[in-house]
Design brief:
Pfam families: Cys_Met_Meta_PP. Keywords: Lyase, Pyridoxal phosphate. One of its GO terms (cellular component) is cytoplasm. By secondary structure, this protein is of the alpha/beta class. The chain has 2 domains: 238 residues, Aspartate Aminotransferase, domain 2 (3-Layer(aba) Sandwich); 122 residues, Aspartate Aminotransferase, domain 1 (Alpha-Beta Complex), CATH 3.90.1150.10. Helix 2 packs parallel to helix 8, helix 3 runs parallel beside helix 4 and helix 3 packs across helix 7. The radius of gyration is 21 Å and the shape is globular. The protein starts with a helix and ends with a helix.
Length: 368
């Protein structure tokens, strides 16, 4: 089946007369479990939950590898760092990756004695730092700069030197890009963003083809207590069925917006991997099915960026992305990314593109 069909059925149990299509969330801290605990599927809520299992099955079907769900994207990131890296190991990380991933690496991991090697996503610059590394961390497209690296090439080069590879796949989701098929050992994502798309929950997951590697991640979740709530997991599974619909509309809108912005004199630079003239396009077109909902662009100053956002009528000013409502922010209001004061991270939603373009046009006109 095609992805748009698969996503509506992923993790959904076989039809049973009189039963719901998808059973509701199971709220329990303990389950009936007399005798040998290994003979009982559920014993204690920190170990397992049937609501998790259904959503993890859905993710596994779509990722092409076994999945473990976490209460946030950063909990998923921390599980890989925590299970794989020890004092003396080397982590190769994008210098332009998601800010909090770098905070953990350069803070907690470095203090533990892990050597952190930073290199940009653009130009596959991490390739030069693989020797002696334990883990290569990739993020493509990067957040917020939307740089793209050649995942297959880097994974092959890393494996040739015995280096494991993890890819933060939050921006495109597994329908837009399949890291495990491209050779990565781990696919990691924040399900808070486009995967669930309604801006009403926080969740993350890790997927891997190697069951031995993933068993360590699952054990980390149990032992660290990094467990998700059943309500959030059920809501995520419910939302997953519309991912293909949402993503197609969002990505079509994002591309149209990128084309529009590229022709505006007020805009200094536009980045979107789907633009044929974008520096990342030649790699993105080979490894991505959708280019994601995020468009990044730069206005001349902080004042212009703030004025533009204030004058948008349909754009929510918010710090997340991937939701069905169009949102944006002046990203430099947060520290940590090497970007200009007028840099805007824009997340295309599911509104009619004619309304969005009209709104952007009138907001940009106020800058002249």
């Amino acid at each position: 089946m095609y992805d748009a069909t698969r996503v509506t059925r992923a993790g959904v149990p076989e039809a049973v007369q009189g039963e719901a299509f998808l059973q509701g969330p199971v709220f329990a801290s303990a389950f009936h479990a007399a005798g040998d605990p290994s003979a009982v599927p559920y014993t204690y809520a920190r170990f397992n939950n049937p609501t998790w299992n259904q959503f993890e099955q859905a993710l596994s079907e779509l990722e092409g590898g076994e999945a473990v769900v976490f209460p946030s994207g950063m909990a998923a990131v921390a599980s890989i760092f925590g299970t794989l890296l020890r004092p003396g190991d080397t982590l190769v990380l994008p210098s332009d990756s998601y800010y909090t991933s770098r905070v953990i690496a350069q803070g907690y991991l470095a203090e533990m004695g892990v050597r952190v090697q930073l290199a940009s996503t653009r130009g596959n610059a991490q390739l030069a730092h693989l020797e002696g590394a334990k883990l290569l961390w990739l993020e493509s497209p990067s957040n917020p700069g939307l740089e793209v690296c050649d995942i297959r090439m880097l994974a092959e080069a890393a494996h040739a030197q015995g280096v494991l590879v993890a890819v933060d796949n939050t921006t495109p989701t597994m329908l837009g890009q399949k890291p495990l098929e491209l050779g990565a050992d781990f696919s990691v994502a924040s399900a808070t963003k486009a995967l669930t798309g309604h801006s009403d929950l926080v969740l993350g997951y890790v997927a891997a083809k190697d069951s031995t590697l993933l068993s360590k991640v699952r054990a980390w979740r149990t032992q660290q207590g990094a467990i998700p709530g059943p309500m959030e997991v059920w809501m995520a599974h419910r939302s997953l069925g519309t991912l293909a619909l949402r993503l197609e509309r969002q990505c079509n809108n994002a591309l149209a917006i990128a084309h529009f912005l590229s022709r505006r004199p007020e805009v200094l630079e536009v980045r979107y991997p789907g633009l044929p003239e974008d520096p990342a396009h030649s790699i993105a077109v080979r490894q991505m099915s959708y280019y994601g909902p995020v468009v990044s662009f730069t206005l001349a100053s902080r004042e212009q960026a703030e004025k533009f956002l204030a004058n948008c009528k349909l754009v929510y000013e918010a710090t997340s992305f991937g939701g069905l409502h169009t949102s944006a922010e002046r990203r430099a209001r947060w520290s940590g990314d090497i970007i200009s004061e007028g840099f805007i991270r824009f997340s295309a939603g599911c509104e009619d593109i004619r309304d969005l373009l009209a709104d952007l046009e009138q907001a940009l006109a106020t800058l002249s």
